[in-house]
Design a protein that fits this description.
8 helices, alpha+beta, 6-stranded antiparallel sheet, about 280 residues
């Protein structure tokens, strides 16, 4: 009985306020009046039961590159000599480790909670204007074969990147910072996409330049071959570099169970061809 009386009183107050402002309640305002009255009633019940103040949550701790405790642990375990710390991470990539096909599951498990931040080719640097196939040839020379390609992704292998990509290089740079290098538009695009943990997103451009500028400057393009699936055209392509020219050929859907395409490189470059 008390609750009904309280509800009627609240509705009367809300109705009076609405009437004072607009002189009358239109048919489409009545539902809002009742909804507001119900909210006020439920709110009062909650306050009576739980009080007016909510206890704040505790602090959320997260690791940063310059964490002194992490640095102490690394030195104590003998993973780095004392006094050799590079200081707080500023985006310069000094070391890198490529994740092999066999270690993909371990890497994904290690960085399962990472929130990825991406950086595309939306700058006017030489790296952003170079055709992606050419960059891919330099990545092959510097890193070797990608961690994952369309061959694995299209068979359902998990990836934190684009499911329609041609290739993905998964890296751990400076010992423990996750980084990915990948394409977006396959052989039809320019530039490259990089990603890292969101806590380093402000340093991502510097990380990209530090690593990939070295890749492009210190290597010569070497042959490679990949499959690429265009989701727009719904067609498969064989794309790569044969040592003399870059190529992209439309093909029938390959049997992905046979694995990645293999490119035979005879001594005479003129006889290069892809064995699908």
């Amino acid at each position: 009985m008390r609750e009904r009386y309280f509800l009627i009183l609240i509705i009367f107050i809300c109705t009076s306020q609405a009437y004072a402002q607009s002189r009358r309640i239109t048919w489409d305002q009545l539902g809002l009046v009742y909804a507001d009255a119900r909210f006020q009633l439920l709110y009062r019940e909650y306050v009576d039961l739980n009080g007016e103040h909510v206890q704040p949550l505790g602090f959320s701790k997260f690791m940063v590159a310059s964490d002194s405790l992490l640095d102490w642990i690394v030195v104590t375990m003998g993973l780095r000599e004392n006094g050799s710390s590079l200081g707080p991470f500023q985006g310069e990539v000094h070391t890198w480790r490529l994740v092999s096909m066999e270690k993909r599951a371990d890497w994904l498990a290690q960085y399962d909670s990472v929130q990825w931040s991406y950086l595309g080719n939306n700058f006017f640097t030489p790296l952003d204007t170079v055709a992606t196939p050419e960059i891919r040839a330099h990545l092959q020379a510097y890193f070797g074969s990608p961690t994952q390609t369309a061959t694995e992704t299209k068979q359902g292998e998990p990836t934190p990147a684009d499911e329609n990509g041609q290739f993905e290089y998964w890296l751990a740079v400076n010992d423990s910072i996750p980084m990915m290098v990948m394409d977006v538009g396959g052989p039809f695009d320019r530039g490259i996409i990089v990603a890292t943990d969101h806590q380093f997103r402000s340093l991502l451009y510097r990380m990209r330049q530090s690593l990939l500028a070295t890749v492009m400057r210190r290597t010569d393009a070497v042959p490679y071959v990949d499959y690429y699936y265009s989701p727009i055209e719904e067609r498969w392509y064989l794309t790569g570099y044969d040592g003399e020219e870059y190529f992209t050929h439309r093909i029938k859907q390959p049997d992905l169970k046979l694995g990645r395409p293999v490119q035979e490189i005879p001594q005479e470059q003129s006889s290069n061809k892809a064995d699908v």
